């Protein structure tokens, strides 16, 4: 499935760091930013998470929920969130099924080699469940959250 702006976002149900199920249908009526990242506690992923954390107040004030998704376990997410005071949910996709549906897992180039892995990307889903914007490949993990906020502010 290809993620396309203006089309319905693929449904999903995953567990958060507390073991609670979170479904796209539960989030209906809210704008949601899903950001996909490779791994808790790695340098780029930590910078991205902390940048979203630092912009959390502004993003929440616009009525938008931020959710991070990686293959890590709930326990790993709990530790990561606690270590960096992350105020948003982190979802576990150990089988990478949701990531595949969202175009966030597949072939990528790493250190000049083609490998299979998590593709750092983001999808903004509107309150009606349609994709408002997709960032297929995030170039700078640290700067990306500010670009997402700018897009939300622009409407």
State the gist of this model.
The chain has 155 residues and is an alpha+beta fold. It has five helices and nine strands, in the order βββααβαβαββββα. It has a single domain (13-154), classed as Glutaredoxin (3-Layer(aba) Sandwich).
In what order do the strands lie side by side in the largest sheet?
Answer: 2-1-5-4-3-8-9
Number of structural domains: 1
Name of the CATH superfamily: Glutaredoxin
CATH-assigned fold name: Glutaredoxin
List the uncertain runs: none
Largest sheet: 7 strands, mixed
| Percentage of residues in DSSP E strands | 25-35%
**Structural class, judged by helices and strands?**
alpha+beta
Proper CATH architecture: 3-Layer(aba) Sandwich
Provide the succession of SSEs. Answer: EEEHHEHEHEEEEH
Query: Can you tell me the CATH class?
Result: Alpha Beta
Helix content: 25-40%
Roughly how many Å apart are the termini?
26 Å
User: What's the shape?
Assistant: globular
**What is the mean pLDDT?**
94
Total DSSP E strands: 9
The radius of gyration is: 14 Å
- Put simply, the count of helices is 5
């Amino acid at each position: 499935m290809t993620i396309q702006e203006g089309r319905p976002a693929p449904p999903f149900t995953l567990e958060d760091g507390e073991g609670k199920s979170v479904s796209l249908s539960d989030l209906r009526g809210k704008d949601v930013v899903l950001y996909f990242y490779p791994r808790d506690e790695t340098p780029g992923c930590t910078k991205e998470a902390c940048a979203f954390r630092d912009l959390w107040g502004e993003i929440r004030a616009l009525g938008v929920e931020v959710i991070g998704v990686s293959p890590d376990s709930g326990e790993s997410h709990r530790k990561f969130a606690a270590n960096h005071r992350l105020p948003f949910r982190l979802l576990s996709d150990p089988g990478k099924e949701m990531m595949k549906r969202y175009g966030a897992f597949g072939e990528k180039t790493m250190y000049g080699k083609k490998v299979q892995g998590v593709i750092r990307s983001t999808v903004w889903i509107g309150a009606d469940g349609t994709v408002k914007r997709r960032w297929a490949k995030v170039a700078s993990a640290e700067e990306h959250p500010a670009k997402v906020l700018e897009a939300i502010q622009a409407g």
